[in-house]
Amino acid sequence: MLPMTDATAARRAPHDRRRGLMLVLSSPSGAGKTTLSRRLLSQDDDITLSVSVTTRPMRPGEVDGVDYHFIDRPSFDRMVAEEALLEHATVFENSYGTPRAAVEATLADGRDVLFDIDWQGTQQLADRARDDLVTVFILPPSIAELERRLTTRAQDSAEVVAKRMAKAADEMSHYAEYDYVLVNEDVDRTLADLEAILRAERLRRRRRLGLSGFVNAMREGAGR
Ligand SMILES: Nc1ncnc2c1ncn2[C@@H]1O[C@H](COP(=O)(O)OP(=O)(O)OP(=O)(O)O)[C@@H](O)[C@H]1O
Ligand SMILES: Nc1nc2c(ncn2[C@@H]2O[C@H](COP(=O)(O)O)[C@@H](O)[C@H]2O)c(=O)[nH]1
To answer: Any idea where the Guanylate kinase-like domain is (predicted)?
Structure first.
């Protein structure tokens, strides 16, 4: 178990002190993970995005270091060899991976980490740290709407959109491996459901490091 830093411990009441959790969002491409992640991150200071490394080319509007760390193949292979990635996978012919150091630093601070990763990466994280993991699969309301979203996002060529649509059925077959499944029809409603999941998971007894000390102190007080 990772200890919290003094700064985070001081910010929280004793009964609110807890270990950080890892919240994973997966979906077929275009179902809305990035949209939901941005909304969640903008309104919750206790969760930070894990910025992945990728060998995929940058899309218009993406920012290096914010959306991804865009790296070349030798750099990616070096990170794998040095075990600098918590998980990694090939998705749509490109390599993606989660830098280990940033995740460990955030969890050690008692804060949560949000991951936008595919089912392969989720399985690897589950093998390493199942107790710290909360996994959510996002489904589109229909296949026609998924295609509409990928097309109107207007960031990928028709060929790339076709490849992503071709993989959607395979991706969706993994929904049952996840703790929660949300159908992202209305984005406000889906975001509210995601917030509810995060709120409840933060309250789980096993994550609440300060609870036993808090209860013991009250019990001692009651016995006087
Ligand atoms: N509930 C929704 N209703 C309508 N449009 C949506 C909804 N959620 C997301 N979108 C739109 O669908 C498009 C795809 O969304 P987004 O980029 O968030 O998907 P993604 O799952 O992150 O895709 P990828 O896996 O390719 O990164 C975007 O243009 C986004 O604005
Ligand atoms: N296993 C991992 N999957 C990742 C990671 N970062 C992103 N992804 C997934 O890749 C696809 C495509 O993403 P895109 O940005 O190119 O549209 C999507 O399913 C992401 O969730 C990662 O570090 N590891």
So the answer is: 20-199
